[in-house]
Amino acid sequence: MKRPRKTRQGNKILVVMPRQKFVGLVGEIPERYRGVFKFASKKAYLRAAALVTQARLVITHSHLSPRANYFILQSRARGIPTLLLVDGPLEWSNSYLNPSLRKTNPFFRGYLMEPLIHDAILAVSVAQAGYLAFRNPDRDISFMTYENKRLSSVRQAAPSASRWQFLITTAKTPYFNDTEKNNLIHLLRQLTAALEQGGYSYVFRIFDEALQEALSPQDNLLQGSFEEVLQQVECVIGTPSSVLLQSMASDKPVGTLIYRDSPLFYQSGWLVGDLYNLDATLASMISREDTRMDFQTYCLEQNLSQEDFFTVMDRLLKQQPRREKTTESLQTLRFENSILHSLLESPLNFNPGYYFYRIKRRFFRS
């Protein structure tokens, strides 16, 4: 098999994402890295070959984006190291059942983070890195962790007087079929009934229109950041998502809504489902039951790394990872082909010859 052609490495770290998003994930760029990072939009994929030759390392954060992954394919062809920056926790249904995975790459037939085509992965926790390594065997990938500032920044937030005792929130896409939607609506109705019966004050932060219509929440805080909302409540109950980790990092009692048969990648101190005594659960949360808060702290430490991103970069750049790729699994090759196929079909890729070929096939098919 043809080996990657040797390319003289540049001295930049090419980051294929907006600078603001990158800083939001890893923190402000320290002085020793001033001028080292070069940022490019994934929309510039047609210039990927020229851009990666200026780099000693190429970083992306999107596993499925064909345009971002084209930078990775161009880097690998030239032996330039690549890094995937995982931007949040994994959620089972989102990884394995979410139909929108096909919207990003309609020719992809795998799962989120499976397969991985980068040389190195920076995960948000040791637990996440271990699972991704387990699901991507025999790939010779370096797995490391970093402190995700978006998830952990609320740890330093100053305490303030709470306006509500409970916040009820969901992921922006909290269900993937009607059964899950109906189960969630049923559970949320039971929960609000228990909150009202117990005399607890509560507020919603729910973006899904079907849930809004079904629940008709009187107070639904959609404006402002989640960090701002978090400072106004004592406890948080929600569907599995990054905001639950943020709430745990802010030392709030956190309950996870259980409304579907999906494994949990991480646990909170409380589980909230219709098979449980909701009155006892709410009382335990508002009292900040010691043993459960201790367990929640333990779970948080397992699921949020505290290693500084730029310290990891210091170590990674000294290693200068470069792999001569000669073989790939059938799964990986299919993923790479789906990337190229998606780009070829993209309306942003204007290729007159290819369009004439498609028209000819459509109208002159025998």
Average pLDDT taken over every residue: 86
Write down the secondary-structure element order: EHEHEHEHHEHEHEHEHHEHEEHHHHH
Q: Tell me the overall shape.
A: globular
Please mark out the parts with pLDDT under 50 across 5 or more consecutive residues, or reply none: none
Residue share in β-strands: 5-15%
Our count of helices gives 16
The number of strands is 11
Order of strands, main sheet, comes to 2-1-3-4-5-6
Portion of residues in helices? 40-55%
Largest sheet: 6 strands, parallel
Cα-atom radius of gyration:
23 Å
**Terminal Cα separation, in Å?**
37 Å
Structural class: alpha/beta
Verbal overview:
- There is one protein chain.
- The protein has 16 helices and eleven strands.
- The protein has 366 residues and is α/β, with parallel strands linked by helices.
- A six-stranded parallel β-sheet has the order 2-1-3-4-5-6, with helices on both faces. A five-stranded parallel β-sheet has the order 8-7-9-10-11, sandwiched between helices.
Short characterization:
This protein has 366 residues and is an alpha/beta fold. The protein has helices spanning 19-26, 48-52, 66-77, 92-96, 101-104, 126-135, 149-152, 178-197, 209-215, 226-230, 242-249, 278-286, 290-303, 309-319, 330-345, 352-363, and strands at residues 12-15, 37-39, 55-60, 82-85, 120-123, 142-145, 164-169, 202-205, 233-238, 254-257, 270-272.
List keywords for this structure.
366 residues; alpha/beta; six-stranded parallel sheet; 16 helices; 41% helix; 13% strand
